[in-house]
Structures are given as C-alpha cells and as structure tokens.
C-alpha cells in the first residue's frame, strides 16, 4: 500500500474530508496546512496574526511561513503521511522535495481530486467557513488556477499523478481513492 501521499485539487474538492477519512483508516499522519494555520490564528500566535490577514482575502500565505509549519510536523520515519493543501505552488513543491530527500521519504502518490467549478462554489458556500464568501472564493479559485495547477504537470512528469473524479458522493470518492492506494 502507498503511504506517502499528496492530495491536490481546488478549494472545495473534498481534500480535507477524504484526507481525514483515509488517514484515520490507514493510520497516516494527516497534515493540512489550512488546519494548522487556522489553529495558529485561533491561538492568536504571531504567525497566526500574520497569516490571518492573507487567509481572509483568500491569498496564499508566504512559502517561508508555511514551510516552517510543515517542517515542524514532518515526519516520523515509521508512519506514512498525507499532505493536504500543501504544496500550493512550484516553489513549495521544490522545498518539499528537498526536505523529503534529506529524510529519504519520497512521495509515492499524488491524488488529484477533480470537481466542476459550479459544484465547487456550491460546496464552499454551503460550508460557511469565514473565508467562504463569494468574493474570497473567486480569488481562491483564481489563485489555484494560476499557482497550484502547474503542480499537475510537475507530478505527472514525475509519474506520480492520479486523477479522481470528485463530483460524486463521499463514499464513492473514498472507494475510488482506496482502489488506487492498495
Ligand atoms: P485550505 O484550508 O487548504 O483551503 O487553506 C485555507 C487558507 O490557508 C488558504 O486560502 C491560504 O490562505 C492558506 N494556506 C493553506 N495552505 C497553504 C499553503 N500551502 N501555502 C500558502 N497558503 C496556504
């Protein structure tokens, strides 16, 4: 079974939901940079204060800040992991790769959850997080297209990428993911 995984996909694709199910089921470390940043914001740390301004606008926080969080958490050698929401651009992908090289823990699989724009917007509006208003959503989708989609080509060149249709129900998508993992 593959146990060092990245989840890629636009906001609202269901990365968090699926990552949380799969990581529980297979005892993987679930690392969501969005969740980690939100808890820094909640605790009112300096890092959280800096991040909140950008998160509220739907902008990406700086690579340096995100990396400092990921480096702290990554990565016990015996446990598999699942990264969700990171990397978000090529520079983060390169930093991640050099970190993983040092740790001798290469990525085994990148899962791309693909969902139509219409459905993404519906899902995000229904979720109601503080950065899920119409204006911010449009910005996040644009940033995804501009900054994150180059990773699709990047990981497909490395022969790591698998696409999953994320339009269906939660159980159906989970089953499709498991079929690829095992
Ligand atoms: P998410 O929960 O993944 O949708 O992330 C929520 C917000 O956190 C994003 O809109 C960004 O502001 C910030 N964020 C999360 N992950 C990253 C990352 N890898 N790089 C930069 N910003 C991030």
Strand content: 5-15%
What is the terminal-to-terminal distance?
A: 5 Å
At the fold tier of CATH, the topology name is: Rossmann fold
Mean pLDDT: 95
The strand count comes to: 5
Kindly provide the name of the CATH class. Answer: Alpha Beta
Indicate the CATH architecture: 3-Layer(aba) Sandwich
| Largest sheet composition | 5 strands, parallel
* SSE succession: EHEHHHEHEHHHEH
Spatial strand sequence of the major β-sheet: 2-3-1-4-5
User: What general outline do the C-alpha atoms trace?
Assistant: globular
What compounds are bound to the protein? adenosine monophosphate
Structural class: alpha/beta
Helical content stands at 55-70%
In the predicted model, the low-confidence regions spanning at least 5 consecutive residues are none
Radius of gyration: 16 Å
CATH superfamily: P-loop containing nucleotide triphosphate hydrolases
Task: Give the SSE layout.
Blueprint: E1 4-8, H1 15-26, E2 29-32, H2 33-43, H3 46-57, H4 63-73, E3 81-84, H5 90-102, E4 109-114, H6 117-127, H7 134-148, H8 150-157, E5 161-165, H9 170-181
Parallel strand pairs: 1-3, 1-4, 2-3, 4-5
The chain binds adenosine monophosphate.
Features:
182 residues, alpha/beta, Rossmann fold, 5 strands, binds adenosine monophosphate
């Amino acid at each position: 079974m593959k146990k060092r995984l990245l989840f890629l996909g636009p906001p609202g694709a269901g990365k968090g939901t699926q990552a949380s199910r799969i990581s529980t089921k297979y005892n993987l470390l679930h690392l969501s940079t969005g969740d980690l940043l939100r808890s820094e914001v909640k605790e009112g740390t300096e890092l959280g204060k800096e991040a909140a301004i950008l998160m509220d606008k739907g902008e990406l926080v700086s690579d340096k800040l995100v990396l400092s969080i990921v480096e702290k958490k990554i990565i016990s050698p015996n446990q598999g992991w699942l990264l969700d929401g990171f990397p978000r651009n090529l520079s983060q992908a390169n930093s991640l790769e050099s970190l993983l090289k040092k740790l001798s823990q290469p990525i085994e699989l990148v899962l791309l959850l693909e969902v139509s724009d219409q459905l993404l917007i519906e899902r995000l509006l229904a979720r109601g997080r503080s950065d899920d208003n119409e204006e911010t959503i449009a910005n996040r989708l644009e940033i995804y297209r501009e900054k994150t989609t180059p990773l699709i080509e990047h990981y497909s060149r490395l022969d790591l990428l698998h696409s999953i249709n994320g339009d269906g129900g939660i159980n159906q998508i989970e089953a499709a993911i498991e079929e690829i993992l095992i």
